[in-house]
TrEMBL record:
CDD domains: TM_PBP2. Pfam families: BPD_transp_1, BPD_transp_1_N. It is found in: Cell membrane. This is Peptide/nickel transport system permease protein. Residues 100-315 form the ABC transmembrane type-1 domain. It is a multi-pass membrane protein. It comes from the Bacteria. The chain crosses the membrane at residues 12-30, 104-124, 136-160, 192-211, 246-272, 292-318. Belongs to the binding-protein-dependent transport system permease family. Keywords: Cell membrane, Membrane, Transmembrane, Transmembrane helix, Transport. The lineage of its organism: Bacteria, Pseudomonadati, Pseudomonadota, Alphaproteobacteria, Hyphomicrobiales.
């Protein structure tokens, strides 16, 4: 427990400057883009006179200098105030709190499915490298990984929603259904079946190939021969010794892929019309809503950092040497 706390404290301290760099870089990157929320608003209403433009820019704080706006944003961020959305005319924090759970549910389900199934299939393939089973799973995973997620989502939607009519075609749940309790849980599960499947299958193939490679390499190490010499059963050697060592690169890749899965949810949410975090980012870009887009970037950075915190703790549990080195540092 002490090792985990030391590791967590060190990671939190090191993540603060990283988050600050992300915020400042993203702020100046958005400032360098042409147009702003006032331009988008004027375009939607067919233009306006100079007085209206000046009034809007003053009300949105766009008449101040870049450094003044940056300092104001950092001061607000320190108070956990993400600003005001120009496009939605609502606080950015309320929008994120409203949309983020849908994306976390989508990503969490897809990650659990891809990681669990990919690890299991990788163990099956890696225990007998070069076998017919290994070749079939390796070639199949390569084919799946080459398929674009949006295309797979469209195919699944056409097959299971349009043709077979087994599952809902879009949304996170039935609108105004009035369902509660278990009925609502089942309704949400039906709506998430296709988007979770489309997002999970792509990363399942990646986790399968990494686990397969790790298993094949670990089986060649001396401790496997020692375990066999002790008379341990094959299943115990594979699950308790080989698979544990092969999980290390897989857990590392899980942390690295957390940002990629968050970006992939943008496409899946658009295909299946899920009101989530990804679609909110798309709407912020279309409306040139810089405060909302900054809030989304900051929240995404915090999510990625939190996922890597969890990955570091799991990694330390799998490899005690990491915790020991952190404790001596």
């Amino acid at each position: 427990m002490k090792r985990a706390l030391l590791l967590l404290r060190r990671r939190i301290i090191s993540s603060i400057p990283v988050l600050l760099i992300v915020v400042i870089f993203s702020f100046f990157l958005l400032e360098s883009a042409s147009g702003d929320a006032v331009d988008a608003y004027l375009g939607s209403i067919g233009g306006g006179d100079a007085a209206l433009i000046r009034s809007l820019r003053e009300s949105y704080g766009l008449d101040q200098s870049v450094l003044a706006r940056l300092w104001l944003y950092l001061s607000s961020l320190a108070r956990l105030d993400l600003g005001w959305s120009v496009a939605f005319n609502r606080p950015v924090r309320d929008l994120i709190v409203e949309r983020l759970p849908n994306t976390l549910l989508l990503m969490g389900s897809a990650t659990a499915l891809s990681f669990g199934l990919g690890s299991a299939l990788g163990i099956l393939a890696g225990t007998k490298p070069g076998s017919l089973r290994d070749r079939f799973l390796s070639i199949g995973s390569l084919i799946i990984y080459a398929i674009p997620s949006f295309w797979l989502g469209l195919v699944l939607s056409i097959l299971f929603s349009v043709k077979l009519r087994w599952l809902p075609i879009a949304g996170i749940e039935t609108i105004a259904s009035g369902k509660t309790g278990l009925s609502r849980v089942l309704d949400v599960a039906e709506h998430l079946a296709l988007p979770v499947g489309a997002l999970a299958f792509i990363y399942l193939a990646l986790f399968l190939r990494i686990m397969r490679s790790g298993m094949a390499e670990a089986c060649k190490l001396d401790f496997v021969l020692f375990a066999r010499a002790k008379g341990l059963s094959r299943s115990r050697i594979v699950l308790r010794h080989v698979a544990r060592n092969a999980l290390l690169p897989l857990v590392t890749m899980l942390g690295l892929q957390s940002a990629a899965m968050l970006g992939g949810s943008v496409v899946i949410e658009s295909v299946f019309a899920i009101p989530g975090f990804g679609r909110l980012a798309q709407e912020a870009v279309n409306g040139r809503d810089a405060p909302l887009l900054m809030g989304i970037i900051v929240t995404s950075a915090v999510l990625v950092i939190c996922v890597n915190f969890i990955v570091d703790l799991v990694y330390a549990a799998l490899d005690p040497r990491i915790g020991a080195s952190e404790g001596r540092a």
